[in-house]
Amino acid sequence: MLAIVFSFTGSGANAIWAQAVAFSVAVTVTWLLNRKFTFAQHASHNWQRELMHYVAANSVGAVVTNVVYMYLILNVSVFSRNPVSAVAVGAMAGLFFNFTASRVFVFRKI
Asked: Which residue did the predictor score with more confidence, 2 or 98?
C-alpha cells in the first residue's frame, strides 16, 4: 500500500484518492492470495460473494486498526511519544481481526 500511495501522491494525486486505490489493490491481492493459499480448501465457487464479504470484513478490519491506533495515541503516554509502536499494535489488531473474519465469515462453505 505504501508504494502505491507514494507513487500516486508523487505524481500529484490527492492523498485520499491514493489511499483508496491502495486499499482496493491490497484487498484484491490479499483476497486472491488467501483464496489460493491460506484458505484454498474453503474457497467458494461463488467468488463474487466471497470477494464482497472479504472486502466488507477487511473494511471493518481497517476500522479496528485505526481505532486501536487512535486509542493508544490518545490514552497511553508511551504510544503518544512513539506513534510508530501504536501503528504496529493497531496493525496487529487489524491482522488478527481480518484473519478471524476471513476464516469465520468469508472462506466457509455454505
From this structure: 98
- Over 90: is that where the pLDDT of 1 sits? no
Degrees to nearest 5, angle at CA 42 with 89 and 39: 35
> Whole-model pTM?
0.89
Nearest 5°: the CA angle 1, 70, 100 is 60
Integer Cα distance of 39 and 87 in angstroms: 27
Whether 72 contacts 90, CB under 8 Å: yes
Reference 100, options 47, 39, 43; nearest CA is 39
DSSP sequence for the chain: -HHHHHHHHHTT--HHHHHHHHHHHHHHHHHHHIIIIITGGG--S-HHHHHHHHHHHHHHHHHHHHHHHHHHHHH-HHHHH-HHHHHHHHHHHHHHHHHHHIIIIIS---
